[in-house]
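USER: My hope is that you can spare some time for a protein that puzzles me. I am handing you a single protein, as its sequence and its fold in token form. Walk me, if you will, through where the backbone shape changes along the chain. The protein I mean follows directly.
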Amino acid sequence: MGVIASAPAKIILFGEHFVVYGEPAIVLAVDKRAYAKAELREDKRLFLRSLNLNVAGFFENGNFKAEEGNPKEAKIKLEPLKCAVEKVLEISGERAGLNIEVNSTVPVAAGLGSSAAVAAAVAAAVGALLNVKMSKEDVFRIAYEAEKVMHGTPSGVDPAISTFGGALFFQIDTGFKPLDVRVDIPLVVGNTGVERSTRSQVAKVRSLKDRYPQVVEPMMRAAREIVLRAIEALKEGDLETVGELMNINHALLYGLGVSDESLEWLINAARKAGALGAKLTGAGGGGCMIALASKDRVENVLEAVQRAGGNAFIAKKTDEGVRIEPT
């Protein structure tokens, strides 16, 4: 008998890039999920397969044997999942052989937190299969360790939102706290399909800030004000204000040089179709944009973003974080 667990993707609603310098950000869990299925094996080997990345292989006694995909690439991509499994096995005190299959509805490398969602789902599935008592904090810590394998020094916001769900206020020095957001937030997410490196975008902003501190620091303060005003607007259910603030936040990000033509094309299409606000989400330089629309305009905005060349879908905030699926 196998166990299936799932965890949600995320979007950064406000504050990307500025968050690196200690400013706050608002992050939402959205209703696209990553799924992990865990089963026991007769032997003590660990078999991992990612259906999205087309890689699979066995880990045994420190060695890796690829079954699918380029061996070197497969090992790199499956290593974070192996890390998550091993952390759960450490807690359980067992040495079990496992088959893990991962399948995600979250676009990969698009700034939507797919790797963290997968890690949280794997940790929860293995924990449930082995009857390990794990709190959500435990799942978060394990997913965070897996993210370190992948990203070096991640902020922790992706594994947090995938584990706990809902909306989070995040700041590097104080960590994250849940935001009580009751209002439905209908979003269109448009993927440009342009692959980008988060690291190079972050470096670009750092270089600009070093060259023009007197210009960029007031932009940072403005970004903080946007987040604080947005929290009030979200609590009051005032989506028009949230949309306006998204537009201002995007203008700041554009000023930092992290937008590009592929993003501007989709953002302008969304605004023309009646979006309340639209901005890039994540690192920029490609990746995804988001548009906020009233319920009666959301389909129009979706179509406009698709017509402009974006791979787009409608996403809603979800309050449910990592969970075990009924089988």
About this structure: Residues 187-315 form a domain with the Alpha-Beta Plaits fold (CATH 3.30.70.890). The CA atoms of residues 192 and 262 lie 6 Å apart. The chain has two domains: 3-180, 187-315. Residues 213-236 form the longest helix (24 residues).
